[in-house]
Amino acid sequence: MKRLAQSLPKSERQVQAEQALLQRYIQEPVVQKLLADYPEMNQEQLLQNLPALVELVRYQEHCENCLGLHECTHPAKGYQAFLTPDVNRLQTTLYPCRYKQQQLEKNTLIQAVNLPHEILRAQFSDWQPEEIMNGGLQQALVQCQSLKAQRDFRGLYIHGDFGIGKTHLLGAIAHNLSEANIHSLLVFWPEFTREIKSDFSVLDAKVERLKQIDVLMIDDIGAESNTSFIRDEVLLPILNYRMMFKKPTFFTSNLPLSSLQQHFTISQRGDDEPIKALRVIERIHSLTVPLVMKGQNRRR
């Protein structure tokens, strides 16, 4: 039907209406730029591609006064339309706008291992102001500012009840730090340790990555099945390196540090190893400021 409609001759009235519309849109700056870039385009080609020109101008009108991705009304959110000639027709190509480009660049600064990708989009604005003040989150904001200003190298040891948003807070901190081009790596510790125990060939590469990243965030420490090997040959070298080179490190846990120390004291064989546990805890003390997080269980 579309091809049939295109093949039928247009009435004089239709031709005049299209020419009038073209004269209106041809004055738009975005169309003027198109003509400057492709001066070989003639009036007939522009008329044949009038719908594409109209769409281009509408895209541009939306983008000119846009204040951010939250206001974007385009079907392809965060993308601008550009036209390029392709034989006798104009081909529409979508490119990220400046806000989308900023988002894409930030996402490359935040990486997550064995965690849901929505964590990468977490922000402090996800909480109400009273939640930030009453839930201990203000301390997290202060620590972010200290890190960005290089006044302190310490992260946070965030502990609290199940389901109150501790992991989400790590994502918000990583997002905040990305504004200063600081790389963060979030690691779900129980799954990370399980993968190492199932394949020792990846040990060196995985440990080195956690040593070197700008900001390391270890999620749910204390929930893993503790072994002497994981404690002494994996976790301790990572913490020792980061402590020596003053690399920011964050933790979340359901356990206060005293309980985490007990977790590391008893080996998988049932041996009591308080000195080895203390070595880990002392390094966590050196690397972090404690934060008791409060709030409602968001999983219910």
Task: Walk me through what this model shows.
With 300 residues, this protein is an alpha/beta fold. The chain has two domains: 95 residues, no CATH class; 191 residues, P-loop containing nucleotide triphosphate hydrolases (Rossmann fold, 3-Layer(aba) Sandwich), CATH 3.40.50. 51% of the residues lie in helices and 15% in strands. The chain contains 14 helices and eight strands. It has a six-stranded parallel beta sheet with strand order 3-5-6-7-4-8. The protein has a two-stranded antiparallel ribbon with strand order 1-2. Helix 2 packs parallel to helix 5 and helix 11 packs parallel to helix 12. The relative contact order is 0.10. The N terminus is likely disordered.
Helices, strands, pairings?
Blueprint: H1 2-7, H2 12-25, H3 29-37, H4 43-48, H5 50-64, E1 79-86, E2 89-96, H6 98-109, E3 110-113, H7 129-134, H8 137-148, E4 155-159, H9 166-178, E5 184-188, H10 189-198, H11 203-212, E6 215-219, H12 228-244, E7 249-253, H13 257-265, H14 274-287, E8 288-292
Parallel strand pairs: 3-5, 4-7, 4-8, 5-6, 6-7
Antiparallel strand pairs: 1-2
Helix pairs in contact: 2-5, 8-9, 11-12, 12-14, 13-14
